């Protein structure tokens, strides 16, 4: 895990804001081929507005990943479907923006999101549902120490099709290799 700690020190995760609309939509549009068929991000002002409203900080926390030394958006990371009570869990959604793919930023960002979920949102469990062919995403969660828990056929409808997903998760008692606990 030699690469993540330096990347972690270079990035910041913050709530998505109305001011991000123009930059976010442009990056989502130029990254569409990279994202398909894994995720579908807002690409119009009205879908961005729905996205902002979904980030109610109760059931969902939607964040953007930025470099500390510049304003560029590197990617987006959501903690969706937060369930309290006996579950205390959330489900990750994430995507890198071009041209920042494959440079270790998203592994750092997802590690920060998991730490935020455990330490600030007081969740016990963070899940990631990943299509079997999504090698980049599978490598990312493996690298961060997530555990594969199962497989669900036709689990999520993305771009009009019900797609199979592997179900991965990390719980608070597990080691998150990239992040030293404070
Ligand atoms: C999944 C996804 C977010 C992964 O993003 P990514 O940019 O490839 O992930 P990382 O930031 O961790 O980059 C990983 C690569 O960067 C390299 N890297 C790591 N640290 C580095 C550093 N300091 N400098 C240069 N390269 C580095 C690693 O070698 C790694 O390569 P590997 O995966 O072949 O081992 C991206 O492919 C994506 O947005 N896909 C479409 C949306 C999607 O699938 N979302 C998830 C749905 S479940």
List keywords for this structure.
single chain; 182 residues; alpha+beta; Aminopeptidase; 7-stranded mixed sheet; 6 helices; 7 strands; binds coenzyme A
Helix-strand blueprint:
Elements: H1 4-10, E1 11-15, H2 21-30, H3 32-35, H4 45-54, E2 61-67, E3 73-83, E4 89-96, H5 105-119, E5 125-130, H6 135-143, E6 147-158, E7 161-171
Parallel strand pairs: 4-5
Antiparallel strand pairs: 1-2, 2-3, 3-4, 5-7, 6-7
Helix pairs in contact: 1-5
The structure holds coenzyme A.
Coenzyme A (COA) is lined by residues 3, 7, 34-35, 38-39, 94-96, 101-107, 128, 130, 134, 136-137, 139-140.
Structural features, described:
The longest helix is centred in the middle third of the chain and has 15 residues, at 105-119. The chain starts with a helix and ends in an 11-residue tail after the last strand. The chain has six helices and seven strands; from the N terminus they run αβαααβββαβαββ. Strands 1-2-3-4-5-7-6 form a seven-stranded mixed beta sheet, with helices on both faces. It has one domain (4-171): Aminopeptidase (3-Layer(aba) Sandwich). Strand 4, helix 5 (105-119) and strand 5 (125-130) form a beta-alpha-beta unit. It is globular. With 182 residues, the protein is an alpha+beta fold. Helix 1 packs across helix 5. The structure holds coenzyme A (COA).
